[in-house]
Amino acid sequence: MRDFLPADVRKRNYVINIIKQVYESYGFEPLETPAVENLETLMGKYGEEGNQLIFKILKRGEKLDIENARSENDLSDLALRYDLTVPLARVIANNRNALPKFFKRYQIQPVWRADRPARGRFREFYQCDADAIGSASMLVEAEQILAVSEILRRLGFNDFTIRMNHREILRDILDTAGIGVNDHATVLIAIDKLDKIGTDGVAKELSARGIDESASKMVLDIFEQTGKIEGRHAEINRTIVGNLLNIVSQEVLADIGKILRYTAGAPVLLDPSLARGLSYYTGTIIEVNVPDLAGSLAGGGRYDGLIGMFGKEQIPACGVSLGLERILVVMDERGMFPPEIAGSTPADVLVTLWSDETAAESLKLASELRASGLRVTVYPEPDKLGKQIKYADTIKVPFVCVLGESEIAENTVTLKNMRTGEQQTLPRSNAVSLMKKLGE
Amino acid sequence: MRDFLPADVRKRNYVINIIKQVYESYGFEPLETPAVENLETLMGKYGEEGNQLIFKILKRGEKLDIENARSENDLSDLALRYDLTVPLARVIANNRNALPKFFKRYQIQPVWRADRPARGRFREFYQCDADAIGSASMLVEAEQILAVSEILRRLGFNDFTIRMNHREILRDILDTAGIGVNDHATVLIAIDKLDKIGTDGVAKELSARGIDESASKMVLDIFEQTGKIEGRHAEINRTIVGNLLNIVSQEVLADIGKILRYTAGAPVLLDPSLARGLSYYTGTIIEVNVPDLAGSLAGGGRYDGLIGMFGKEQIPACGVSLGLERILVVMDERGMFPPEIAGSTPADVLVTLWSDETAAESLKLASELRASGLRVTVYPEPDKLGKQIKYADTIKVPFVCVLGESEIAENTVTLKNMRTGEQQTLPRSNAVSLMKKLGE
């Protein structure tokens, strides 16, 4: 887990602000949940691999009985949030009556997984989720795809693709290949790695997991044939018909067709081999990729069964999640941050400090400058003027206001432009307008 | 620990944004640290009571040996952040060369304490800290007091007081009363409760902790005599001299006098009985109170010894911490939120959906409206118009754009003003300007 120094935080906030703005422009409302959930809320929601990666919190006080503990569950009752979707499902089930029948929320918070760190993968990382609760309409999927596209475009990405699939398509393909329902989860976890380990890798993993080799070959052959389908509109329907008609239901194909129609303009393609790792998806699934990153920048899907696990009512739901860290890794490598973010400074102006006796006057000048919207730092202790200027240079502040005894006596200030080195003494009331003029 | 629904998050963000703006205007830079720290980083930094309240994380995989575990330390290696000051000290010690010699950072993040919840006290809560590293000058304290005052004033508080004290004043008072150095920490923890349990309560607690009764009486008598000293400038010096001259060093009195001079205009008063619970403070300490809350809205102090515990170098430091939850509790009870925050809506306009066939057109209109800066939500599925209007009313959206087959054919939109109930059909391109006009 990492510390973020000021330059890092500014980049993170730049990306988060764009994500927030776009989500809000689509009518998503902010929601926040605690970092800590009851352990039982999380267990069994993410598949077997997920269970292993949950950070568990030690029981406290009398509840902790080390002597008689036999398992992790005897020692732990709480856990760190693993994603933002399961907490959302819990919130919806608990607050159904306080929320509108269609509820669109966004949530930008960290999650924790006890995973091995890799490029763009950390044990603490931020998810930026937008979910719509209460509707089974494909307009929901379409809006989320459009929102993600707009976010990535506003961040400067122009080479991303949004791969889409449907859990029923996968199920139908596995059925067609003769893979039993009990093996579906196992097979999906292997297929999810297709992009990383290739066809041969997946074949090996399926074999190791005891899947019949002819069935496994048939699944991979179907993926080979369908490929990634890039057509749209009438065309996509023809392509899908040609490749999948005998396998997939008309209803699912119609849903896929709708999403493609509604998202015209976004780089969406149908990829029948897209699996997604999490076990709670029930319908459409998506994943967003760029060429220079093995993992995905975003992912999501429909999970119509999850909320029912926390309440009596089964409520349809669908969401998308942007991975902040991966977006930042790619933007950093490509140099995609605007200059005002990449080269930001702690303040617009430094006010010098002449002596203890003039300190109150330096603070007063700082307060006047702040009132006009400037960010101002005061040199904290009496020191040689050269040292104060050098410090201003180190922290890259563009202006220094020198306030010595003569300036105070004459109600002036000596303004030094740190970029050009020029300086001039002027009435205190004129300092702000000159800085604004020079700063343009 | 609590969930925050949209109306809560908006209030929280309103307060956080003002805190951020003011901190940034004072030249503080943003820093973020992970929620999870090594357990050993936190242990022993907060006093004995603090150690008990740290949430510990269970070891994972092979590191966890339940059978042979004898203590909590055998079972846990990580812990949840308990405050933002100790992580900052660790960051400074680790990154000394990457940071300027004077480093001012702010940090607004949650911390966790396994405490009994009370009014304004939660197990997960946000601290909003501003700290200055590298200078022992009293200008540092003054700037932080001024920043906190400005934040509280901008939030609408006008009845807060900033109590100030110095750990050396307390030490000198305890010495004068004949309390041995080894009992100082115990006595300070009891004195810290003076506001909550009163003089008698503290006397009882001191007696229960085995402190000599005549010494304990003398300490409380001194506090009685000094009271809370409200004077300023020359006056404060006279008052302090009268009450404390024989006890406290000239140097500390001079420092206190400087802070009072530099913060003229802020409601600062010297309270020789102010103790603060945390063990790492070494110099000035402050606490900010309002009449209608037993706890404090903010607190802070100088901790010149803490960074040295993580590195070779002893570096002076001083900080202040605003408690977000307590500020929110008081603001909620007093009704201090501006109407646009208290009555905010998920969107500015709802676009209706006529049928699957017209869905793409509704999405297109939504996209046009968003391009002009509006927050737009689209009704997700075909439904009776009355139901769509009713939903818009439920979520309190001020405008509805009805887009039926005739509107699409004629390139118009029917705009309904939800406040007045009036509606009119107009060219699509005019909808935005009319909404902006009506919204004023």
Strand order of the largest sheet of chain A: 1-5-6-11-10-9-7-8
**Cα-based radius of gyration of chain A, to the nearest Å:** 28 Å
Helix content of chain A: 40-55%
Query: Which chain pair has the greatest contact?
Result: A-B, 90 and 90 residues
Choose one word for the global shape of chain A: elongated
Overall number of strands of chain A: 16
What is the CATH H-level superfamily of the largest domain in chain A?
Bira Bifunctional Protein, Domain 2
CATH architecture of the largest domain in chain A: 2-Layer Sandwich
Question: What kind of oligomer do you see?
Answer: homodimer
CATH topology of the largest domain in chain A: BirA Bifunctional Protein, domain 2
Largest sheet of chain A: 8 strands, mixed
Strand content of chain A: 15-25%
User: How widely separated are the two ends of chain A?
Assistant: 39 Å
Structural class of chain A: alpha+beta
Mean model confidence by pLDDT of chain A: 91
The figure for the number of domains of chain A is 3
Q: Number of helical runs of chain A?
A: 18
- The CATH class name of the largest domain in chain A reads Alpha Beta
Which labels suit this protein?
18 helices; 440 residues; BirA Bifunctional Protein, domain 2; eight-stranded mixed β-sheet; homodimer; Rossmann fold; 42% helix; 16 strands; alpha+beta
